[in-house]
Amino acid sequence: EIVLTQSPGTLSLSPGERATLSCRASQRLSINYLAWYQQKRGQAPRLLIYSTSSASSRATGVPDRFSGSGSGTDFTLTISRLEPEDFAVYYCQQYGAFGQGTKVEIK
Amino acid sequence: EVQLVESGGGLVQPGGSLRLSCAASGFTFSRYWMSWVRQAPGKGLEWVANIKEDGSVQNYVDSVKGRFTISRDNAKNSLYLQMDSLRADDTAVYYCAREIPASTASFDYWGQGTLVTVSS
Lengths: 107, 120
Prior knowledge:
heterodimer, A: 107 residues, mainly beta, seven-stranded mixed beta sheet, four-stranded antiparallel beta sheet, 0% helix, 50% strand, globular, B: 120 residues, 11 strands, 51% strand
């Protein structure tokens, strides 16, 4: 069973800054991609980044300031320049495993 | 427009049962794996169960095996979750979600969720 551990738990940043969120898998992943979701209070999660067996892609309508990278056991979601609407909780996921989430809050 | 609308949540006593439904529209329901994902109050996301396009394969998280049953009716474009022997730690918002084909079970559409509260 794969366990996904996200860090940090909370990230305090200002609009315009770069956000780097980490997701570490307990074992090397057979498929080298994770999905990433954004969730705002009281709303369902929104898919940001997903993967097929061959590639990683941004979901429809997701701005290009969001990008995913990584391999093996270490993966990263980067938000190049934070916009006010980006302050939320972010989750990584692969198959039946979700990370515990990283909250990006306004500093 | 893809829509997933859950219903059936509510307050139930420990040991009781509840059946959740998810009505799908705006896409060919029978071509997609579907999942239930839950979120306890103030907590993170937990995948609960999924079901193959034709209903022939179901998978469950260990904590609900033997208590929950996922099913679907492709003629009615509907997904279900029968929850028996409910426990306090099953209290959560339950979302139905569509899986992207050939993906690592990524979920591209989610319902708004239905709240299940298990309490005496």
